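Case study 2.
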Amino acid sequence: MTETQITPTQRVQQWLDGFSEILQSSDPGRAAELFEANGFWRDLVAITWNIKTLEGRDHIRDMLEQTSKHVLPSNWKVAEDATEQDGVTEAWITFETRDALGKGHIRLRDGGAWTLLTTMQELKEFPEKKNFLRPKGAQHGATKSRKTWLEAKQDEEQELGYSRQPYCVIIGGGQGGIGLAARLRQLDVPTIVIERNPNPGDSWRNRYKSLCLHDPVWYDHMPYLPFPDHWPVFAPKDKIGDWLEMYTKIMELNYWSSTECTGARYDEASQEWVVEVVRDGEKVTLRPKQLVLATGMSGIPNIPDIPGMDSFEGEQHHSSKHPGGAAYKGKKCVVLGGNNSAHDICAALWENDADVTMVQRSSTHIIKSDTLMELVLGPLYSEEAVQNGMTTEKADLTFASVPFKIMPDMHIPVYEQVAEQDADFYSRLKRAGFLLDFGDDGSGLFMKYLRRGSGYYIDVGASELVAQGEIKLKSGVGIERINPRSVTLTDGTELPADLIVYATGFGSMNGWAARIISQEVADKVGKCWGMGSYTTKDPGPWEGELRNMWKPTQQEALWFHGGNLHQSRHYSLYLALQLKARKEGIDTPVYGMENVHHLS
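Prediction:
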């Protein structure tokens, strides 16, 4: 049978058969020759017990030589019919290792693998109790020791953290901590979530009144319980808060609200954490084996140190503490910053008849929400995608299948189309003096988000107010000095001010490690987020994956979990599987731990 006669599915299966044969030979590293010279293998825990992208044959060969004989990858199969377009054959695949079942995705080009994604989906000996394995619920028969579901739940709540220690403690009870705790619950990993707010969802409820999700509903589902079909496309913050509170209850999480972590340290002798918390005024010491900081993708708020701050007679606060615009009618308001929060807050102040000026220090990437939906997210996360058979899981894996090194090349043409489609919109913003960019290399929103977690705004209305001059703008300047009732900008301009909002972002997540554990541990794990792309605010060297996120760190038994709702949902699976494997004593040799290059 010639090459032109075989189907795309047969072509992929032939590649997988040859690949599998080499992996089971005495020289598994030879399988690297089946990749393009500059091909990519992205592994999410399945082979490396890490989140790791191997770039080029040499790196792939080294990984296989160090892992194959222990991990024993085998049984590589095409999961559904492959497709072919523009000389690239793509297919979904399944495989297994000694300990786990996996799913993946492959792209072949001219007979060689261009990209390969492998992901761990389930531990063979410890599957989730679902489908045929779901619990019975009812306890049929007669017994004098019978406990109802409620009694068993109450017993667990009274014991865990007191007479019985959790295996894992998650600090941070927002959507990330809640979603991860749900995964761990399904894997029978005793877990406590620590949250200082009184109720689940309060981290959303406490934000400024106008806050809504800027990402669409199809992108934002939680694990296990997707939003219902009538859920709004862009959910208001209080609706999200209510959903998270409901989710926490339905998923039966051990959620300690009104609890603050006052300190933590790792006990090398006992190989466990000593976590001090205050719960409803009572001091409690927890001793988990694993500690997860789930504080979003952000660290402690960045508040600039500006001369004269102490002299200001008005009100000043960080955007994370902004209550909304209602209290500032008729007030002179200055918002320092030009990204998402700055735009949202400026628009809310304008709606409440405040006199508001945005101080934009550096350029911002703007994309209209409708354009983002149509040109960027639509193929994977939209009602049309759902109707065409796209599932949330397949969308997540499709996105994950593109190595970060080549992702900019795929995004640049899309954002060129965005710029052309909305040329008039961008022209009007520029005429208003707004500083625009599409990222250092023109790759747009997602690469800016992944590289630095800042520098963008998804326009849901505020940009039009800037273009029209309704929101006043001072761009290319900062605040040089704060006076009792005004601010002096770096160009000498003085703006009267009753309110100053510092929409100046957040530090790295390891700032929470410094505050909760120690600066030594924060420096030991280093900066979180970014990939080393050598672009603005993401210094090199290149690492190929987000620093420290959802994977082992240089501090034993310390993990970071965060990101947007999509990332929290998708990567919580891999973090949960890593934690479950350690709980059950499965050998988890980590390949490719990165050195620490940046402390914050």
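Residues 29 and 65 are 5 Å apart (CA to CA).
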